[in-house]
Amino acid sequence: MSGDLPLPSDETLLGYILGGLSDQENAEIEALLIGNPSLQQRLRDLRSLLEPLAEEQLAEESQEQAINPSDNLSDSLSGGQPEALDLPPAGLIEQTLRAIQQQSNGPSPTRAFALSQQFHSAESQSTRVAWLDSLVALAAGIVVLSFLLPGILRWRESARQHECAENLRHLGSALISFAQFQPTHRLPAIEPQGPLSFAGVYAIRLQDKELLDTKRWLQCPGEPSSPWLANIPTSQQYLQAPESKRYVWRMLAGGDYSYHMGSIVEDKYQAPSIESSARVAWIGDRWPAELHTEPNDEDFELHGNRGLNVLYNDGSVQWLKLPKLQKLASIDHPYLNHHLKVAPGIGEADACLGPSHLLPAIGATRPPR
Hints:
five-stranded antiparallel β-sheet, 10 helices
């Protein structure tokens, strides 16, 4: 997408930082930022330039008001026109100046005290100005943060979404490599029954073939992963482990993603084929099972309540916003089959993605130990 859109100008980027663009313009800039280090650096440079400018502007305004507050008040009361001042009697100013000059020529016992008072007054005023400068700087920092924080949060979520999509692409390549070595050209199958009957078994099957290069592929940066996901076992290691450890692996082996639970085709249960002509979801962000039938945006915290990444068999990763995902319930919901159940798909073109611990045959979770 970034190749189809022109790079935004500095003015457009400033509008993005300050929240002055439309939702569509924000989405276009976020799409351009993905995979464009030079544009990302330019955005950081503009943000760093904004901060001192905002501080300087606020400091100047505050200092002007502190130095001459009565002018602002009188202007506001008189509609911007200065008030007429009462002038002193003629000759009074000259007489006063001559008297001061005469006193200054001779010794005065109060002169040192007056100078001392003037010095302390200036020092006190300097302290007040320094304190005011600190207060203005603090206020400016808060104002700048209020401008930058929404943009920073949007950028963080966008970066996490992009990294999550890259993980899904890596897993998709591994799944294709697995299927190419199978006579049936099918993805890792979930056994309908037995100890390997859970959705997360796909990761174990990839580990059997040494196709899972790193566990980070199974971790979505938008969701805190369990520390138990230290390693993915092979099938042999899983079957030889005690039941307590197998239980943990059943819950976590699939990582932060939901996998295709298979389909019922002509009364037979089978894994998806890479030769299928239909567009089928293979794997996507994990969506809590309790939200499948009655989705609630408030209970969904992944990617800032915005949506999910889903990898399809054509290699594309589609970003599905939550409102759009709910509208797909009667068409092609990737987390529900055609019967709107969390269970294997009905036909080859139907997919239902389930989290690691989900059973494929009945679409229910294993009971807790």
